[in-house]
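Notebook p. 47: complex prediction with adenosine-5'-diphosphate.
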Amino acid sequence: MRGYWRGAAGWLALWLALAGTAAATAGPVPALVGLAAWLALLYLRQAWYMGSLLHWLDQPQGTPVPPGSGIWSEAFAYLARLLRRQRQNEADLRSALERFQSATAAMTEAVIILDELDRIEWCNPSAEHYFEIDARRDLGRQLTYIVRQPQFVEYLDEQNFAEPFVLRGARGGETTLTVQLVPYGNQQKLVISRDITRWERLEAMRRDLVANVSHELRTPITVLAGYLETLNDQAVPDPAFQKRAMQLMTQQTSRMQNLVEDLLTLSRLENARGPSAEQPVDVPKMVHGLHQEAMALSAGRHQFLLDVDEDLWLTGAEAELRSACLNLVTNAIRYTPAKGRITIRWRPTQDGGGVFSVVDTGIGIAPEHIPRLTERFYRVDRSRSRETGGTGLGLAIVKYALSHHQARLEIDSEPEQGSTFSAIFPARRTCTAPVARAATV
Ligand code: ADP
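Predicted complex, structure tokens below:
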């Protein structure tokens, strides 16, 4: 800048000197005319550069800064530098924004930014999903216009955000969300929301389990306590009563034992992500064993039919598969009156899988109960289940053991006609009997 003033002063001094010399030699009029011509040229030059600057300012994006000379070249170079810096800042901001948007888009948590009047300024795709916000339509709307529950409106009004708000019934009633508000900046708020539907369901299941187990244990414990008290109070022991008491106490103890064993099996299966082993399982041999056990359990009350593919094996955990199949067989015995028929079948399916099915001619199940049978402690007829030694956990165990083997349970039943319980295994779980065994069969 200082160079410019020096240059300008130099030019002025030169022209004044020239004008002075012209005035001394040719008189004052030619000198003034020359000076006026010089000023006019100077004015035109400035006007021309000013014009190009105005023209450029009209459309600065995408057009190069106009060329100039003297102070104008410096001014234009300065503008060009400013423009470059601004473009760089814009690019940096854009890429930071893109990074922020792609990070928040990947978040499973819903994120919403509210302005000082609780109007939506911005939200991520999860927020659009959970709060059913349409980003184009709802930006600028108050959040309470979207979430209209009076308790939430109160929560926002109270401005006490130490604890998150639990929003039940989101997304048409099925979803539960926690909504945490974080005030920041100039009375703005960051809303972070998480889907806790699954967690709530698990909590409810845990509470139900505790209640159910306590309920299941209460009856046998009451029976045991009652008999023990009576036996204690008997001044003269009554042998007949003692015998009967012992029988009933043994019965109740084994009921508790069964319950605890089933609970432990269920918890083992629930905690494992897959089968406890990946070995070839000789299913035909296992089914023959189950058949023998079933006949012993039925003690001649039922007729049994067996239909087994002797070459079809499975890969997985034998103990889990056996437990699942045994549960289906014992259920058939327990829910089929005497003289009923029970068919145990192990056959390949058309797509290369295998199906283990137990068909009975028992009491059957009404259709409304079928979807709930694999829930823990779900029974169609509580007293019948208990009378026959049921814990209400059998089919839950079956479900977990099968899911470990990517198999599914199909139930087909008709009241008074009978039921078919089928465990269907996919092709990737089946294999043929190893050669050594096949040769001996
Ligand atoms: P439980 O120990 O009560 O048998 P399960 O989980 O094994 O418990 O079975 C759940 C309910 O399903 C039983 O209480 C019974 O009502 C019904 N059920 C299971 N298998 C049969 C069957 N073969 N025939 C009729 N009802 C059955």
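Notes: The chain has a mean pLDDT of 90. The radius of gyration is 44 Å.
Next step: compare against the earlier run before touching the bench.
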